[in-house]
Amino acid sequence: MDNTGSETVNIKNISVAGGGAMGSGIAHVFALNGFKVNVALRSTSSPEKVLASISKNMDRQIEKGFVTAENKKAALDRIFFYTSLEKATDDADMLIEALPENAALKKEFFSKADNVCPPHTIIASTTSAISITQLASVTKRTDKVIGMHFMNPVQVSNLVEVIRGFATSHTVTTSVMNLAKQIGKTPVEVNDYPGFIASRLLAVQLNEAIFALYEGVAGVQEIDTVMNLGMAYKMGPLQLADFIGLDIVLNVINVLNDGYGNPKFAPCPLLVNMFNAGHLGVKSGKGFYEYVPGTKEIKAVSVFINK
Q1: Which residues contact 63 (CB under 8 A, 6 or more apart)?
Q2: Which of 191, 215, 232 is the last residue of a domain?
Q3: pLDDT digits over 189-212, tens only?
Q4: How many other CB atoms sit within 10 Å of the CB of residue 128?
């Protein structure tokens, strides 16, 4: 996938749709690197809350010596909030969608964005698994739709998967690769197949760890300890699944299962049961571990297995 010699476009003005962890993290990184960023929020969202989250994360960077107070002030002054997508994108060279991982929701958004964005605007999705080609299909600018899968937390992780849809142009791909480098990230270009690289490999690994628990090979802490100490993982697979959210893990595995039709991608029944029971991990307070609100204390739980 060599784009050497390809023309590029100059991307100056960035718009971001969504003010959650991903959207705020993306705004944070671009603003800190000198870009003007317009953030489109739902009318029920609070700009003050999003800005406070960005400010808090920048303070952590100041404490570590990565950012100065002057850098922070200048960056926050470059972030603007809108409840109208049309106003947020009226001068956008690139719109980055950071909405929940739901194919129907994203397709509806891409159709709307295509109608309101200037003709030259590149529209990118932060999806971790949904087909870029599928999202592009509801637009009239299929050559300008691309995936830009940032890792969470955006302000910490250096990797960005740049996913080239079936019709994404060389120019757009090269431009987005260059843009990622401008904000201090390491871009990796991949083609548009279910799960791409990061989510495909990670989801299979997490699913297999859950199968090991389901089949009684070992307990929660034992599985995580083996991967922590034996494979130098910072976080064991079951704790990581809790951190990501078991609903999101299941969604990615289902995308792989539907996309490839291969039984190796079938979700573990234990994962399905935990999802149906509402045990989603950190976000619900209970998954493979129990989480005490307001503390870093966690306790492995004895998961009831009913085969």
Answers
A1: none
A2: 191
A3: 999 999 999 999 999 999 999 999
A4: 26
